[in-house]
Fold this sequence. Notes:
Elements: H1 2-11, H2 18-24, H3 28-41, H4 76-85, H5 89-93, H6 97-164, H7 173-192
Amino acid sequence: xxxxxxxxxxxxxxxxxxxxxxxxxxxxxxxxxxxxxxxxxxxxxxxxxxxxxxxxxxxxxxxxxxxxxxxxxxxxxxxxxxxxxxxxxxxxxxxxxxxxxxxxxxxxxxxxxxxxxxxxxxxxxxxxxxxxxxxxxxxxxxxxxxxxxxxxxxxxxxxxxxxxxxxxxxxxxxxxxxxxxxxxxxxxxxxxxxxxx
Length: 197
């Protein structure tokens, strides 16, 4: 109560966070802080009789050294900061078989991904070669088809020439009419672009 009166006289207003103080005053962090302050203020204690477990007698930061009777761990922010700075030595020394197994699995996965990428590269090259071979095969087939068409055209032309060169003198009239009709069809096909019915 003296503290509240002193606060009011110094600040000119009453202490607004009394409900918070009532909630937190028995919390281990504040109990430790309170006991440290008491031990500092005691007039009878000498450096030889003071307990060596107080944070004042150990060279460590506030967030690293727990207070007496406190099982409060360091906060998230402090733990992250220590990890970033690499000062968390006890974490590095606590490498467990599970962590080693996880690291091995990560290495295996990386190796498998590299092998898979190489395999896909080889498959891609083989597929490109297969496509080139297929295109060459199609080109050869097309050229063979063109040659076949040309042979058929030449054969038909040779047949047409043979028919056109036939002498119809001395043939029976029915045979003459047949050959004349064939000659007319050949002429129409060559010059007219169509065929007669």
